[in-house]
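TL;DR need structure tokens for one chain.
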Amino acid sequence: MLNGVKRELGEIIISFGPFRLLAGARVLEKDGVPVALGNRALDILLVLTERPGEVIGHRELLARAWRDLVVDTSNLRVHIKALRKALGDDKERYIANVVGQGYVFVAPVKRESVAVRPPQLSQSLAGAASQRFVLPPVLARMVGRDDAIRTIVADLIAERFVTIMGPGGIGKTTVAVSVAHTMLDEFGGAVYFVDLSTVTDPKLVAGTIASKLGITIPTEEVVPSLMLCLSTLRMLLVLDNCEHVIDAVATLAERIFQEAAGIHILATSREALRVEGEQAYWLAPLESPPSEGGIGASEAIKFPAIELFMERAAASGSRVELTDADVGVITGICSRLDGVPLAIEFAAARVGLHGLGGTAELLKTRLGLQLPGRRTAVPRHQTLHALLDWSHGLLSEAEQRVLRRLSVFVGPFTLAAARAIACDTVLGEAQVVGALEGLVAKSLVSVAATSGVTRYRLLETTRVYAQEKLQECGEEQAIAQRHAVYFVSVLSAVSRKIGDHGPGDVAGMGEHLGNMRSSLEWAFSSSGVSADVLPLAVELAASAVPIFLELSLLTECHKWSACGLARLDDSTRGSRHEMVLQEALAESATWALAKQESARGAFTRAVEIAQHLGDIPRRLRLLVGLHVFLIKAGELRDSLAVAEEFAAAACAAADTTYGAVADCLLGGSHHFMGSQEAARKHLQTGVSSQELLDLRLAGLDTRLRAIVTFSRVLWMLGFPDRAIATAQEALSLAESLNRPLSVCFAFLFTAPVFLWCGDNRATRRVLEKLMAHPNWHALPSLHATAFAILGALQIHEGEGEQGLELVRSAVARLRADRQNLLLAGAVATLAMGLATMGHFGEALSAVEGALAEANEDAEMSHFPELLRIQGEILFTRPQPDEAAAEAALKRSLSVARQQGALSWELRASITLARLRSKQGRAHEGRQLLSASLACFTEGFGTVDLQTAKQLMEGA
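>> reply
TL;DR here they are.
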């Protein structure tokens, strides 16, 4: 007895402020009331109060609290935060942080001996009740949730009450079980898991918790008795699957948090409990690679959604290996399943049976909802359909009705859109808003705020399920029509802005794409059998195609323009709708189709309608589009006539912007027709006009188009340095505009400028960027020209055979598709390549054929170069014809001078100087080169001027 008394008397209590800390009992109390504190937080407090006023380093605190386990210093910060919260130490009255060193206990400390040990919180339930309770097993391996677990553990220690939220199948229970196992040491094994999924009566929630904890409560007043027991304990209480009894759980959890300071609560639910003390943690979907692709298998496997898919596929017996070719398919599957782990597991388990492609196709149908999961899973987790049935059954009638109507949306939608679709005589606006809020709270609808506007979205699996419900109730057609009518109003406003030359919000318009496509598919499939839908289909197409064009979705623009034009009737022919559809058809055909015969007729018809309607701005816009088409088709005389018509109309228009546009059009026509001085005059005026900056016409920025052409003109005029600087300016402008067609156009048509200057590296760089661009494959009309330039580059770099075949194929393609612009340049490259490889006969035939095709309507900017190449072939072939060569070269010089093309003149002079040297007349060659070089004021580092200089020095 005496020894026992001495032990009691020998206990030391450390007092500070209103607190008393007994080290032997491991108890902290405030004003005589025990304070709930975790084991490690208590260890840290003991260390700090042992040596008040002394800085205790991070390493020592970690060693004392974690007993030499290797842990990160972030764990120390979490427990310091929990300790400060327990002490109410928001102003560092007790514990101060010494940056880079550690922590110091700064409050005055008093030590005293006591005879009676103060009361302490029980660490757990007693005896057999505690021993018979076992946590659910943690998964052997969990993918992509390490950060979530660390965050939840830290919040539970510091805040005591966390609810894990998220839709069904997102992994709330899996994460909660892992957190529970992680915190066993923190709570000395007192971690208790209560599954509420089987509780159907809210009145039984408290009794179920008491029963699971092994607490015997003989009275009918369960809650007071349960609270009495819990108030003496310290534990982690996990309440799983709360959504169907959420009101009862919320009330009880709030009371436990308020009255039982030693109880930490971890709940899982599809919606927040919304009570005092709760910290809601939204469990995010598993991340997938970006949908635009561009990454290989080695990078894709680092994304948790892909990692989980591959692991579950392997576990189900599939031998599929992740390859670069499969990344897109698997990414598509995971994205369609919105990164929901349970859904990904279901899909991956069927790969062995259906293959990757088959599984992806299956998920596009409602059969995908029936994919079976693990046999050991709870019934609602055995198929996606069962999981959604569980969620659907918990909804009110209004929520069910709104959910199935919202399934018509593809992608995000606004509150205004939801009201337009879901409201009717039964459901008023207030009821729809309330139902939508309920669906968001229950994790069936996700919500995000961007640019100050809140947008909503159904997970794809939820949307497919809700569509099934919509079809079952017989509302599918009526809701689809309501959806189409709503988007006609939305798209019309945006399209009018584009039509008025506004810059448009490309990102904002992109969010409508899913709904645009869905509405169009429905309208045109229905209009074939239903006359009352026909006007709606035409109006919808006319509203949508300008947006497809603005987003450079040219193939879709062409498809829906053609569909709309095919559905015209007497009431819509000659209308604004037809004009818009004809314009969109023409512009998309110009760029998206290799053969563009339909474009000219569509432009002409649209111009007629605009003139009939008295729509001057639209007529001018259409003339720009027609000019683009004619230039691209190589119909240059007609392009000049259109440019002159535009210039005349621009004089009569009130908008002075059109004058600058007229100069740009005239400059483009003159350039390709071979009048470089006239081209410079017009382009310089147009490009320098500030009024031209934001004008977008015919799918291209007009100023960008002019700058690209101007860079070509500058090179031909003999200003190589300015040409390169202007080409780089065009590339910078294109990238700042970030419009796919403008970017690809700039890459393609500046590449020759770099090549002419001998900058092979820059040429390859822009061609690589062009061919790597996401829209490259959607612009087949550019491919032949691009491959001709790439072939020329390869020939310049010594890859003669490979480059020659590429150019030969490109020339054949240009001829077949009747793409005459830059055909002469491609033939010139082909002829030089053939001559270099010793095929002189074929080379001469190619160049002479191109010269024979040259006329006043043809592309003449390369005519001097064709003549030069003809002359070079004639005097370098095995049986040279020097007289014919000299005649061709003199003609090349003459035409170059007429065009003002000093750079072509220099090239002809170089070749003629070589001929003179071969003839023993090197002095004449030097004189000719000297005269040409004297005209240059810049570009002395470019390839042609360097070659001329070397010839001068070596001649």
